[in-house]
Structure formats: C-alpha cells, structure tokens
Amino acid sequence: MEEASKEELMRRIAGEIILSESPGRVMRKWRSLFELTQAEVARLMKISPSVLSDYENDRRKSPGTGFVRRFVQALIEADELRGGQQVRKYAVFYRSLSAAVIDLDEFESPRTVKEVVSAVGGEVLAGEGLLDMPIYGYTIIDSIKAIKLLDAYDFLYLFGRNPMRALIFTSVTRGRSPMVAARLYPIKPRLIIIHGPRREQVDRLAIELAELEKICFALSTLPTVEEVINGLRSLRASGRE
What we know:
Udp-n-acetylmuramoylalanyl-d-glutamate--2,6- Diaminopimelate Ligase, Chain: A, domain 1; 434 Repressor (Amino-terminal Domain); 12 helices
C-alpha cells in the first residue's frame, strides 16, 4: 500500500479522536474496527491495558496529541504485524468518489441497523434478524451518477470501505443494481437502503439477493433526499448527547 494512503488514514483517525466530544469512544471504535484487544494496543504503546481502558471509557481527561499519535501508530503497527488487512481496507476512505457521493459520515459510537433504518423512514424488506447489529457510519450515493461516472474499482471502494456501514442509494428505480453490485463484491455492507421507488416497484430479485447475502435491505419512504440526509445527520447528532 502507498505510504501516502497510510499516512492519510492515520491523520483521519487521529483527527477524529482529537475533535470528538468523546475521544475515548472514538478510540474504542477504531480499536474494535481493527479487531484488536486493549492488551495488544497497550503493549505496543508501552502502557498498561488499564490506562488505555481508562481513556476509552473517558475516565481520564482527553488524551493529548502525543498519546493519540502513539495510539494510532499502535493500531497501524499491530495490523501490519498481521498482514495489514485492516489498513488496506480503511485506507479506501480517501479515494475520491465525490462525483457520486452525496454525503457520508461516521458515528462516534455505534448505532443499530434499526436506528439507521428508522432515521430514514425505512421499511425493512429483508434481513429483519440483523436489526440489532451495529453500524458505524453511512454513505449516501446518487445511483445514477455512480453508474455513469464510477468504474468497477470505484464500486469496489464503495462496498469495501467498512462492512459495519450503511450504504444509501438515491435515485433508484427498482433496487436491483445495488444488490447485484453487493453480490459481486467480497466485503458486504451490513445495511443497504434504497430511496426512490414505491414498495410495489422494488425488484423481487433485489430482495432475494439481500436475503441470500445476509444483508439488511430497506426502502426509505421519506419524500426527498434532503430529508434522508437530515435524518441521518440527526441520528449522528443524537449520539453525542
């Protein structure tokens, strides 16, 4: 992986921690996303796991920039010792997909699939058993622009960003294309929401593919894309309270 991409990922994680109202929750989130234990990270930081636990649970004052830098470096080092899989996966945050991406954000603490679906006035079409699964962020995609402007590699980046994520496709006619794309890529988002069609217009094959791939598939019933954006932003804001 290019060093520039890795450095950008490190800056992104560090910035999110420093700017957060709850740095500990963000630290815990990224450690969980990297599938690391407190003991593994603490060992590389040369601190005790209890110290890291205190920071993650906001029992200590906000960590300084030096501590945050050591924490992020420990995440990267621990992952590279395992082959660098998580670094490669999350570095795709920084490929420019702005031509088709309407909005995206991360939650400081996980929200459930059910909460995200509710925030967009969603009706679950498949995957009702996944409603309690955690979601760490979302990407809203203009499906027409994505089809016209993005290539296959771009779609790989969209679907491969983070499995604990919601992808919301707008300007959808029937919903088949997002689910066919999800079927093709090895890393599946936990939740796919479509916006545009009425319930009776949704392609039955899309629902069947969601069931086959064990993806929660929902239809947003909100009238406008702006309301979808506002619903998700409100959900993020409510997580800070």
